[in-house]
Amino acid sequence: MKALWFAGLLACIGTPVLAQDDEASQKAAVEAFIAGLDFKNGAVTVDGANATLKLDEGFRYLGAADAQKVLEQLWGNPPDDSVLGLVVPKAGLIDDHAWAVVLTYADEGHVSDEDASKTDYAELLAEMQEGTREANAAREEAGYGTVELLGWATAPRYDATTRKLYWAKRLKFSESEVETLNYDVRVLGRSGYLSMNAIADAGDFTTVEAGMQRVLAMTEFNEGSRYADFNSSTDKMASYGIAALIGGVAASKMGLFAKLGALLIAGKKLIIPIVIGIGALLTRVFRRKAPEQS
Q1: Which residues are registered as beta bridge partners of 135?
Q2: What is the pLDDT of residues 191-207, one digit of tens each?
Q3: Radius of gyration of the chain (CA)
Q4: Are strands 164-173 and 180-188 parallel, antiparallel or unpaired?
Q5: Residue-wise pLDDT tens digits, 54-95
Q6: Is 114 exposed, middle or buried (0-12, 13-18, 19+ CB in 10 A)?
């Protein structure tokens, strides 16, 4: 994945650096980019979600502006102003096994958790797999490759006490020779939910799952915005429940192709390098990682 991050950055920081194809110059450009980011430690507020992360010493946080800069300029993703922040393990952003957690917030109403204990997650998976297969024709027509939902890496689990939900999927994109891990966390609040998403190589599952469990425990809505603060007399209810959060929010509002479209883009961006003539260094690194994303 390191090759892509170099490529994404170089694509954005201009011709002068592209003209320098020596390894030292390319490495210096990436290091300068990262040095310019404003990493935060400890207790940080997630602006736009009324939530707080109490980060342990193993993680740092980037606010919306820097998070979007990393996603777009370093990793080559398309612009997305819904991104509120990025939780980054202190191992760094350009380590061969680096990963990060993208934070967004959905202010679509209070999500009922009544269906959590009633949902057959094996059946839900089968429905999601069928929908994914049906959507592949539309993906190809739109110029993307296909995606296969292989199964759960971690089956959905909901904690009714903390109002937190998490699950992980194993995906196979036609552009990649290896599986992709898509790890999701949802923290339910008074008026919506905080979404935390990590995409990595399936081979890094153990590291990512351990890290996501730590992030899960460090995340809470602020007083007044917690799930228990819901007021049925004044607050809006969401039109979906727990199963829809896992299968893809608001199926009535968007088809599976649209729901997984962003994930496909993320998968392509983390797996497929941007071709910009970046020199022998990147070729060597990518070949070392391959068979090897969001």
Answers
A1: none
A2: 999 999 998 888 899 99
A3: 19
A4: antiparallel
A5: 999 999 999 999 999 988 888 777 788 999 999 999 888 877
A6: exposed
**Cβ atoms < 10 Å from Cβ of 145:** 15
Q: Is the CB of residue 79 less than 8 Å from the CB of residue 73? A: no
pTM over 0.85: no
Would you state the structure tokens that stand for residue 183, as one six-digit string? 């790890």
Domain ranges within the chain, ordered by starting residue: 2-289
With beta carbons less than 8 A apart as the criterion, state whether 200 and 280 touch.
no
Burial 96-107 (b: 16+ CB within 10 A, else e): ebbbbbbbbbbe
2-289: CATH number: 3.40.1000.10
